[in-house]
Amino acid sequence: MSDHVYDVVIIGNGPAGCSAAIYAGRASLNALRIEMGFPGGQVLNTSEVDNYPGLPEKGGMELADAFYEHSAKYGLEEKMEQALRIENADAPVKTVVTDGGSYQTKTVLVAAGAHHRVLGAEGEDVFTGRGVSYCATCDGGFYHGKTCLVIGGGDTAISDALYLSHICEHVYLAVRRGELRATGLYAKAAMAAENLTILWHTEVKKIYGDKKVSGVSLINNQTGETSELALDGVFVAVGISPSNDLLKDLVKLDEGGFVYTDDYMETSVPGIFAAGDVRVKTLRQIVTAASDGAVAITGIQKYLNS
User: Fold this and answer.
1) Spatial distance between the Cα atoms of 53 and 50, rounded to a whole number of angstroms
2) Over the stretch 150-161, which tens digit does the pLDDT of each residue have?
3) Does residue 18 have an active-site annotation?
4) pTM of the prediction?
């Protein structure tokens, strides 16, 4: 570990991290970016993006490349390493330890994102981005007039199914139980939707197709009866988990493990900030993650100046 002290270490290279790097570069902050994989975050799992302002019909990979190229032009130092922990979190100078070294910094911005819980069905990984999605508001627009299946029984699943019912010709909802876990208003709306069919005690065993999804194999977990369902898209809504390993023992979290922040993206520990899908928020989208990154650097400047 050297004696060099950064103004900020940015962990993550998705929309929040890239946006933060742009704003850190514009502010002439002495910043280090750390990312263990390809830049882009969950954007890389989206075949097309049509809801980012000014950039309609961009491929996920194309948009991720554009984010990174823009952020890289400011010349911030980068390390392709895995951040393991934050030491001396309460001190004015903190230490970020990675699998390749340790770095001293006045502030830390964690933009590590979140990951959707996978179903584990056969074919799910093969067709992710090609008919399997984890975000109805992101990808629902590609299924106008088509048939889709939503998997899950909680508020997110019902919200996704209702959202898709206004877009698709027909929506099926596969629920493992014989009842919905969703709140009353959601459940009532789902039961009333004319083009929404609820498949009780139903689990998806296989997702299949050629170049894209064309159907699923289902099983009734009460009777053991199997069936096939032809469709165009599968939306998995069985939960989302924050990538909070760096922060879970340091800062205040909600019951789902998401990080509480203030309006400047600062956590309960002064000098430690969080942006993007890892934090508590009402909407997890590319545009809101990018916004978080910009706001976080504003908060970091405020912290450094104080």
Assistant:
1) 8
2) 999 988 899 899
3) no
4) 0.74
